[in-house]
Structures are given as structure tokens and as C-alpha cells.
Amino acid sequence: MREKIWYEMMQIKFGEKYLAFYLSLQYRFKKIFKILTLVFSGSGILGWKLWQPIAWIALVLIASIQILSLIENQIIRSDKEIGDIAKLRELYLKYFNKLEKLWVDLDTSKITEDEASQLFFRFRSKDFQIIEKLDNTLGIKKWKKIEKKADLEARQYFNTYHS
Q1: Which of 21, 60, 106, 128 fits a disulfide with 116 by CB distance 3.0 to 4.6 angstroms?
Q2: What angle do CA 57, 63, 66 make, to 5 degrees?
Q3: 67 pLDDT band (50/70/90 cuts)?
Q4: Number of neighbouring beta carbons within 10 Å of residue 70
Q5: Measured distance CA(20)–CA(3) in Å, rounded
Q6: CA-CA distance, 127 to 141, in Å (whole number)?
Q7: How far apart are CA 128 and CA 121, in angstroms?
Q8: Under a CB-based contact definition with an 8 Å cutoff, are residues 65 and 40 in contact?
Q9: CA dihedral sign of residues 53, 54, 59, 62
Q10: What is the pTM of this model?
Q11: What pLDDT was estimated at residue 43?
């Protein structure tokens, strides 16, 4: 049972860290997209006199901005999706805290293996199902760079607090 709880804790900590970095990246994408849209819109409209001799460039810029605005949610997560991802991360944190307390109680012999097993499967059937349901609806992409960073952070956490 110890190994099962430990493995589950590691997986959940990794998932929580991954979501933290993923959210940060999505917020950055949104900020950059809004700034670029503003800059190009402003330069297209305010620079009309400058662009007048080569009007087709201004037309292409404005058309590109309009197309990007229409497909923004296909490129970047919507505010609702980002909110759902933040909620998912919160669920990961709550579940991790329960698992960590369970681990500490088992490791310090405050509870028996049988009690730990019962609690673990109770947590798993209740909390983890909620996590899986929300996770499945979001379709979060796997990014190798974020996975490596999340793995490193999760391992550092366990090396710091559980070694």
C-alpha cells in the first residue's frame, strides 16, 4: 500500500505542477496576443496616411487581425477554459494534501496499512473521479518542455519534504 500511495502522490504532484506551468503559459499567450492585436490594429488605423501609397499592406494587416480575432479561441484557451484549468489545479492540490496526510500518518504509524488502504480508495473513488471527469473535458495538451519542468519541480518537492 505504501508504494501505491507514494506513486499516486508523485503523479498528482506532477499533474499539479504541470497545470501551474500550463496556466502560466496560457496567460502569457493571451497577454501577447492582446498586445499584438492592439499594436497591429493601432498601426493599421493610425498609420493609414503612411500606408496610403501601399494600401494593400494595411488591408492585409487589418484582415489578418480580424482573422486572428475570429480564431483566437482555437489558438489560445478561452477565459472559461483557463478558469476550468485553474479549478482542476485546485482539485489536484486538495487531493494531494489528503494523500500527503495519509502518507505521513502511515509513515509515522498513526494508522495501519488496512486503515490507509480504506482511506486511499475512499479518496480515490471520490476525489480522483471528479478530477478525471474535469480533466477529460479539457483536453490539455502535453508539452515536453512543461513536462520536464513539472517533473523537476515535483521531484524537488519530494526530495525536500519526504527524503
Answers
A1: 106
A2: 145
A3: confident
A4: 9
A5: 26
A6: 22
A7: 10
A8: yes
A9: negative
A10: 0.83
A11: 59
The residue ranges of every structural domain in the chain are 2-161
Burial 74-111 (b: 16+ CB within 10 A, else e): eebbeeebbebbeebbebbebbbebbbebbeebeeeeb
Confidence at residue 64, expressed as pLDDT on a 0 to 100 scale: 77
Query: What is the percentage of the chain residues whose pLDDT exceeds 90?
Result: 66
pLDDT tens figures, 98-107:
999 999 999 9
| Residue 14 neighbours by CB distance under 10 Å | 19
Rounded Cα gap, residues 23 and 20, in angstroms:
5
